[in-house]
């Protein structure tokens, strides 16, 4: 049934996709014969998560099968700040790989796209790329990347078996969520999984709540960028910090929240030791690798806010694949971009790691056997009023220390109010470094 | 009686304590390295139910297109090249510094002390390397290791050279030796024991270096062994068995060094650290 | 230095004398150019960046261009909530690790120079961690120190002690890392002390024994004062290491939980990671000033005492 599912960006006909593939395929063929079978190797820099590397290598392999004269070599880099730095320095020193995968949204703006990247706005294959993706890889008037990977959500993954056993229903508001959590605790199961050894996982109460913030105060992202709205003073925005504090004070976290790692958190969730885990949905492929038989016990709901009628899902758009200006293999790199932005590209990814969310390439259908949590997620993706991109796609202002700050909130070291104020200071540095208007 | 008690009692006690404090953690590392992924994730000291040594070994080596193999090659080149340059340059400096009293001595001593205590300024160093076209290159990192290691090596050499009688130099000069010949043919061989110390200490140090490769030699193709630990400690999932296998493998070279040069280290430290 | 060859020898002087004179005056057997290769590398990659850091610490910097912003970075650096914590933590870390290394190193050295069995084994096993990589050690101990499943707390539980949460308890995190630092580094201190003790002339001990001095008295009146150079070396080395320490903290806590085990070096690294190059460089300058302000007077003090003896 999912194969026939229509997505907002799935509207363009398969014909265009086919045409684009045919065009690029044709170009590849003629190039190959003209060059007398001369083969080229291009490089592609991706992050080193198991999931990324697996699908990257599959795409590279399938691309090579379609274009035998071009070999793609996958290079990896660490994620997080270290990876950001590597990307930035390799770009500024002009020795970036021929293509590289990198975040869309605010991090994309930090790599000076207009200075460093090849615009691809008018390339024919851009017709395949979903309109909802283009804004997050656009700088000035030009579009710079094609999406790789799937859309994701920052939401609560929960163990459906625990919910069934205790007769709970999916919460629509924060108070329902807390009520559920208390019942789960009474049953001797950890209600909310937190894993602060892997610090980034602590941010979900705040980051994943953004769709609720956007619903309550729609102008927040714009005002925030303009230095007019603050987490500490906006009553909707501070909720994320307050919720985390409240849950921590109520003792609803797993006992080892401070030392648990992301991998352990997933294990707890899969085994039903813990019931609910606010996390990014790209946890699903990790669960699939480690606990394949438990994958369909896992469901997903958005982080609940105050108002049941406005409860919306916070969406993470996939990263982009960009071409740096320094490449010496522009034609081949574009061919590869075209391949990624085609049905064949999505199929490679599905073949390698399964479909973990909707693709942002037109004509890409999800197979019928997507995980339960992905099925839970799709209705929100389809209705634009029920989702909002995360703040990092709407504003370039993002502080680097949020993960430490939210660890402090969850561990009871710092109050929600202090934390929000501290985070506001943290983003000031970023805004000044980016020289945004209204901050200096 | 009491001496015998002290000799055996204290000895046995010390052995017991060191087994708990030192042997057990190392054994834990080795055991975890041979477990399968799920068992290793339990983090306990249990005996593995299955031994996956070969499998883990192959997985670690072949991960990311044999990155660990590349890394071992890179680390070997880095270590050998920087230690060789360090030994020669530091010995040259130390020799002149020890033998020739002049107004430069004060400056040189000051710079050596600075090199020992000043934390290198990372971003400006990247900036300099970049302008020389050496950023992200192995030669660049080699020179970095040389620059950062010079002070310590000069100190070790100088203390040792002080114990070589100056008459030896004078005799050689009268025999018609030029400075280069004097240094490389007469003095250098006399420094053998301190050279061994410098080689052992610096090669272990550079082989184990994490921070400098991280800053100055990013990129997979250039990875050094310490950076390969990132492969298995990604933010997203940790394969403890592979991580520990990796640690085990990169511990082998320093371990071999130690097996062969245990005595020289202690002897060298006597010359360098105490007199210096 | 060849400039000094000017003075011409009178023609009447024997050839041999002329030869010698030229060598003595013009070509010292210790030519200054021996400094040159080292000086070039050291200047380019250490001195220039160090001086440049003073300049760039006053800028907002992206590596390709910079804006001069005066003292803003320093102001901001001192507003960073992690910094004050990082500052005190740096001092605590340096003090704890060097004190423990001095005390334990001395103790172990005395033990290992006395007549006990298995000295070779003990010396080897204590020294071995010095050769391990900080990152490897950090990862292994992070696992061992896991509060619920880690071996350390399981062992403590077996004897009825409830161990602390080590790395994830804000009160213990920094100390836990410091203890691992000592575990890894005490071997070096021990070896330095062994060398110091072995170099004490045996006659002192023999004379003391003749006078009927106890071994405790021998330790305090002979070993301790005469091993002073070793103590100075251990203190200076471990303080320099401790104040600049980064690898182990980064591998074990990344400054966490929150900011509770941040030290200056990790704060600098975080700013660098975030792309705040000017700010990070300002942090480097602060660390530079602090380390210099502590080590320089301390080493002068320790060395002067040595000379007086």
From TrEMBL, chain A:
Pfam families tied to this protein: SBP_bac_1
Signal peptide: 1-27
InterPro entries (alphabetical): Bact_solute-bd_prot1, SBP
Keyword annotations: Signal, Transport
Recorded family membership: Belongs to the bacterial solute-binding protein 1 family.
Protein name (Swiss-Prot/TrEMBL): Putative ABC transporter substrate-binding protein
Species whose genome carries this gene: Arthrobacter globiformis (strain ATCC 8010 / DSM 20124 / JCM 1332 / NBRC 12137 / NCIMB 8907 / NRRL B-2979 / 168)
TrEMBL record, chain B:
Keyword Cell cycle: no
The keyword Membrane belongs to this UniProt entry's keyword annotation: yes
Main location as per UniProt: membrane
Any one Gene Ontology cellular component term annotated for this protein: plasma membrane
Membrane topology qualifier: Multi-pass membrane protein
Superkingdom per UniProt: Bacteria
Keywords: Cell membrane, Membrane, Transmembrane, Transmembrane helix, Transport
TM region positions: 12-34, 71-97, 109-129, 141-161, 182-207, 240-261
InterPro entries in UniProt: MetI-like, MetI-like_sf
Domain ABC transmembrane type-1, residue spans: 72-261
GO biological processes: transmembrane transport
CDD domains: TM_PBP2 (cd06261)
Subcellular localization: Cell membrane
Record family assignment: Belongs to the binding-protein-dependent transport system permease family.
PANTHER family: ABC TRANSPORTER PERMEASE PROTEIN MG189-RELATED (PTHR43744:SF12), ABC TRANSPORTER PERMEASE PROTEIN MG189-RELATED-RELATED (PTHR43744)
Name of the protein described by the UniProt record: Putative ABC transporter permease protein
Species of origin: Arthrobacter globiformis (strain ATCC 8010 / DSM 20124 / JCM 1332 / NBRC 12137 / NCIMB 8907 / NRRL B-2979 / 168)
Organism ancestry: Bacteria, Bacillati, Actinomycetota, Actinomycetes, Micrococcales
TrEMBL record, chain C:
Annotated InterPro entries: ABC_transporter_permease (IPR051393), MetI-like (IPR000515), MetI-like_sf (IPR035906)
Biased composition (Low complexity): 1-14
Region (Disordered): 1-22
Keyword Ligase listed: no
Record Pfam families: BPD_transp_1
ABC transmembrane type-1 domain location: 87-298
Family: Belongs to the binding-protein-dependent transport system permease family.
PANTHER family the UniProt entry points to: ABC TRANSPORTER PERMEASE PROTEIN (PTHR30193), INNER MEMBRANE ABC TRANSPORTER PERMEASE PROTEIN YCJO (PTHR30193:SF37)
Protein name: Putative ABC transporter permease protein
Organism whose genome encodes this protein: Arthrobacter globiformis (strain ATCC 8010 / DSM 20124 / JCM 1332 / NBRC 12137 / NCIMB 8907 / NRRL B-2979 / 168)
């Amino acid at each position: 049934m999912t194969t026939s599912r229509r997505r907002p960006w799935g509207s363009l006909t398969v014909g265009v996709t086919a045409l684009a593939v045919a065009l690029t395929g044709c170009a590849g063929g003629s190039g190959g014969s003209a060059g007398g079978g001369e083969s080229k190797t291009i490089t592609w820099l991706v992050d080193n998560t198991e999931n990324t590397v697996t699908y990257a290598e599959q795409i590279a392999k399938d691309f090579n099968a379609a274009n035998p004269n071009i070999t793609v070599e996958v290079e990896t880099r660490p994620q997080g700040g270290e990876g950001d730095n590597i990307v930035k320095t390799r770009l500024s020193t002009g020795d970036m790989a021929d293509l590289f995968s990198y975040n869309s949204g605010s991090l994309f703006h930090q790599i000076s796209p207009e200075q460093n990247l090849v615009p691809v706005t008018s390339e024919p294959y851009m017709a395949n790329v979903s309109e909802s993706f283009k804004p997050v890889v656009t700088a000035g008037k030009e579009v710079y990347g094609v999406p790789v990977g799937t859309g994701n959500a920052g939401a609560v993954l929960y163990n459906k078996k625990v919910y069934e056993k205790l007769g709970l229903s999916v919460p629509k508001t924060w108070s329902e969520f807390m009520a559920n959590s208390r019942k789960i605790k009474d049953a001797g199961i950890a209600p909310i999984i937190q894993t602060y050894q892997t610090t980034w996982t602590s941010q979900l109460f705040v980051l994943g709540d953004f769709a609720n913030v956007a619903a309550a105060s729609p102008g927040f992202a714009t005002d925030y960028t303009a230095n007019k709205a603050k987490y500490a003073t906006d009553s909707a925005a501070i909720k994320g910090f307050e919720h985390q504090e409240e849950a921590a004070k109520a003792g609803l976290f797993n006992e080892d929240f401070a030392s648990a790692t992301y991998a352990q958190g997933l294990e707890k969730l899969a085994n039903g030791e813990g019931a609910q885990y606010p996390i990014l949905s790209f946890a699903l492929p990790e669960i699939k690798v480690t606990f394949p038989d438990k994958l369909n016990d896992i469901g997903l709901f958005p982080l609940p806010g105050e108002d049941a009628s406005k409860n919306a899902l916070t969406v993470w758009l996939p990263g982009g694949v960009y071409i740096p200006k320094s490449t010496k293999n522009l034609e081949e790199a574009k061919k590869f971009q075209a391949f990624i932005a085609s049905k064949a590209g999505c199929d490679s990814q599905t073949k390698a790691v399964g479909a973990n969310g909707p693709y942002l390439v037109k004509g890409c259908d999800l197979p019928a056997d997507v995980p339960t949590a992905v099925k839970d997620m799709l209705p929100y993706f389809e209705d634009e009023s029920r989702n909002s991109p995360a703040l990092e796609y709407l504003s370039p202002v993002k502080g680097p220390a949020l993960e430490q700050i939210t660890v402090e909130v969850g561990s009871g070291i710092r109050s929600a109010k202090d934390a929000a104020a501290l985070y506001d200071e943290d983003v000031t540095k970023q805004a000044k470094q980016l020289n945004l208007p209204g901050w200096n | 009686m009491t001496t015998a008690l002290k000799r055996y009692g204290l000895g046995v006690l010390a052995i017991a304590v060191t087994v708990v404090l030192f042997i057990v953690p190392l054994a834990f590392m080795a055991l975890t390295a041979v477990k399968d992924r799920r068992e290793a994730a339990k983090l306990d000291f249990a005996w593995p139910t299955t031994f996956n040594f070969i499998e883990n070994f192959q997985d670690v080596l072949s991960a990311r297109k044999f990155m660990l193999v590349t890394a071992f090659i890179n680390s070997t080149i880095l270590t050998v090249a920087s230690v060789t340059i360090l030994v020669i340059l530091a010995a040259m400096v130390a020799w002149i510094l020890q033998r020739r009293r002049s107004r430069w001595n004060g400056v040189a001593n000051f710079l050596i002390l600075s090199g020992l205590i000043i934390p290198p300024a990372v971003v400006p160093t990247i900036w300099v390397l970049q302008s020389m076209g050496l950023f992200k290159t192995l030669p660049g990192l080699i020179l970095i290791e040389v620059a950062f290691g010079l002070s310590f090596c000069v100190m070790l050499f100088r203390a040792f050279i002080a114990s070589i009688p100056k008459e030896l130099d004078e005799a050689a000069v009268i025999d018609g030796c030029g400075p280069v010949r004097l240094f490389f043919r007469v003095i250098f061989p006399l420094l053998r024991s301190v050279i061994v110390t410098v080689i052992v200490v610096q090669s272990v140090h550079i082989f184990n270096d994490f921070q400098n490769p991280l800053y100055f030699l990013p990129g997979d193709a250039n990875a050094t062994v310490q950076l390969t630990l990132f492969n298995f400690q990604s933010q997203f999932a940790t394969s403890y068995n592979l991580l520990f296998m990796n640690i085990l493998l990169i511990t082998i070279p320093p371990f071999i060094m130690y097996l062969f040069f245990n005595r020289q280290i202690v002897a060298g430290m006597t010359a360098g650290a105490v007199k210096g | 230095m060849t400039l000094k060859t000017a003075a011409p020898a009178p023609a009447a002087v024997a050839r041999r004398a002329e030869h010698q004179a030229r060598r003595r005056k013009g070509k010292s057997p210790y030519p200054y150019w021996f400094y040159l290769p080292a000086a070039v590398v050291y200047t380019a990659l250490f001195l220039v960046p160090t001086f440049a850091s003073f300049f760039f610490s006053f800028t907002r910097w992206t590596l390709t261009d910079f804006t001069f912003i005066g003292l803003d970075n320093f102001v901001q650096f001192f507003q960073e909530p992690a910094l004050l914590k990082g500052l005190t933590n740096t001092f605590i870390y340096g003090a704890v690790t060097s004190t423990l290394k001095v005390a334990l190193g001395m103790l172990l050295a005395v033990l290992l120079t006395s007549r006990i069995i298995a000295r070779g084994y003990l010396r080897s096993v204590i020294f071995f961690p010095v050769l391990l990589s900080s990152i490897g050690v950090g990862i292994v101990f992070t696992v061992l120190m896991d509060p619920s499943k880690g071996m350390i707390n399981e062992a403590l539980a077996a004897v009825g002690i409830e161990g602390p949460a080590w790395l994830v308890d804000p009160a213990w995190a920094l100390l836990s890392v410091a203890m691992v630092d000592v575990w890894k580094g005490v071997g070096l201190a021990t070896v330095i002390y062994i060398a110091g003790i072995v170099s004490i002339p045996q006659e002192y001990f023999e004379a003391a024994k003749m006078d009927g001095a106890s071994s405790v008295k021998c330790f305090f009146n002979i070993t301790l004062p005469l091993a002073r150079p070793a103590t100075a070396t251990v203190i200076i080395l471990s303080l320099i290491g401790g104040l600049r320490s980064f690898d182990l903290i980064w591998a074990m806590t990344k400054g966490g939980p929150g900011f509770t085990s941040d030290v200056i070096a990790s704060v600098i690294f975080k700013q660098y990671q975030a792309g705040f190059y000017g700010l990070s460089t300002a942090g480097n300058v602060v660390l530079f000033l602090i380390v210099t302000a502590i080590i320089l007077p301390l080493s002068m003090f320790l060395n002067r005492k040595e000379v007086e003896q």
